[in-house]
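PROTOCOL LOG
Step 1. Enter all chains and additional molecules of the complex.
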Amino acid sequence: MTASTQPLRAFSDAGPVSRSYRRFLGRASITLLAVMILSAYLLPLLYMVTTAFQQPGQASTPGSPVYPAEPRVGVYQGAEYPIYTVPIDGVERQLMLIVKGREQSTFVDPNDPTTAPIEWVGRWRTLEQSWTFAPEVDNFTTAWSQLNFPRLLFNTAAIAVLSTIGAVASSAIVAYGFARFRFPGRNILFVVLLGTIILPFQVTLIPTYIIFTQLGWNGTWLPLIVPHLFANAYNVFLLRQYFMTIPRDLDEAALIDGASPFRVFRSVILPLSVPAIVAVTLFHFFFAWNDFFLPLLYLAGKPEIQPLSIAIQHYNALYSTQPTLIQAAALMTMAVPVVVFFLAQRFYMQGVVATGVEK
Amino acid sequence: MSDTSEALAVPVVRVDQRKPRLHLTPARREALWGLVFIGPWLIGLVLFTAGPMIASFVLSLTNYDLLRPESIQFVGIDNYTRMTTDPNVAKAIQVTFIFAAIAIPLTMLSSLTFAALLNSRRLFGKSFFRTLFYMPVQIPLVASTLVWVGFLNTETGWLNEILGFFGLPQPDWINSEVWIYPALSIIGLWGIGNFMLINLAGMQSVPTELYDAARIDGAGAWKQFRHVTIPMISPILLYNLIIALVGTFQYFTQAYVITNGRGDPNNATLFINLDLFREAFVFNKMGYGSAIAWLLFVFVMILTIAILGAARGRVYYAGGDR
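Step 2. Run joint prediction.
Step 3. Record the structure below.
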């Protein structure tokens, strides 16, 4: 776009310096645009962090700053007084309000409380109160104990770990079957597998629920774990794509040495597929971590074994009038997935692309 | 795909000839092993997909109530005829379609725009931006919904304060029957990360010769995007559209979190999936719930087929008709 083609060059009187300058300008403006869009996109996160550290009620106090803050106070004769910005003789001064009057009030300089009080004519209500940056961590400790957060973390992690182990192991085995063996109906079965991606789960939901309830599994973790032992389309697809990139010579060599297909899978395929296994593990782990519908269905009446997602929703229903608590809880809920994402982002990016582009 | 594998399969045959353990031809043995390996999925397909699908259809022809299973009766298509007069179902269909009409185009456009921005040769720090644009997908849906509900709050949220600063109207996003759809669509913007990455990967695989050729023909940036990028990634756009459609018709969590499952305001968030959830699991009408599930399934199927049909001839497959 910026690179002009050869014939045009003769007509341009711009030297190489100004051209590279213009190119820099082009890059800077695109980057600036990206910064602006990104800032708008992530602004709610700033709102969350800010609110989570505010004192309850700060946001609805008129004249309060956006950042977490508390009113500044000073000490005069053993008592605390609020500090206001007072314009005196064209100079704005930070003064303690000692005596509130309708048309006239008394102020004292907090830096030098021994000096004579200042009488100020005017309505103190029109003055701006002075605030100081003060992050409030009580929101976190309150939400932490009200939610019994350690218990929720344990429940969430336990469900996610158990279902991930089952899902990844079974999906890897199935993917190996699709990637390396020819059997009648393979292509049709693979299309059926892909079809289950767009099959709305509601159409199997109710009978499954009835069966799990009859088995006495309602109110336990089993409905959230057992179905994942049978592989799922996303994981199988991603792993199969990866397995197919592994040269067959390696399998063949192992087979000649007398290895069984299971042995080939364990000793050849799996060690060479670590990036894909990690990606699938991460995807599934956080799918299970974030899942809402099924835990709601099976664990709604069991607070002691609920995962985070359900407990946080319930907490919001109880405390929705206290945004400071809710935002602190939201921040705590997203901490683990977001931190893990930043640590392992490469695996995520590759995994998403592999599922989407190949077919 | 199978060229190399067939060429390499020769040594296996030799091994089997040397050591025949079972009375199976190599091809049969291979097929058997294949079935063993895909076995877990096949069992799951029968137990958790095919079986329940049939059962769900049968249930939809009954009045099954989980609390009174013994009084189950075959009612024919009563559940389906009842849906045609059920105001909640009509509302749910209306709500879901309105939302789909706003959210799906917004998702497609924004994910395409973001990908184009990230694909720009003039952007500094691409991987930095890519990571941060993708990151909101990682936030648990319940948590991100709570963040947005706070952000959109009319009293203490930031969005209306910003709108007010620019002298723009400050709608009551969450409690208005009209504004709830734009609000939910905006919340949905945090879910476009996967679409964006897939678009981006598609754009990166467009051969640069095509752009060079277009430039020589005098195409500017927009024309290159419109006439080279878009056709070349059209299969990916089609894939994204279908995934977005399926997701939108199963919309649930955000609506449930915002209204605690009530469907407020005035049933404006009574999505089909929420109506199904209430009928089946709150009122225990499993037969009727199954019928609603099949309605949802039929909608998704018809729309998917319609999209695939409309896309025929408009989607360009560079690698032939695979």
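Step 4. Note key features.
The mean pLDDT of chain A is 86.
Residues 16-52 of chain A form the longest helix (37 residues).
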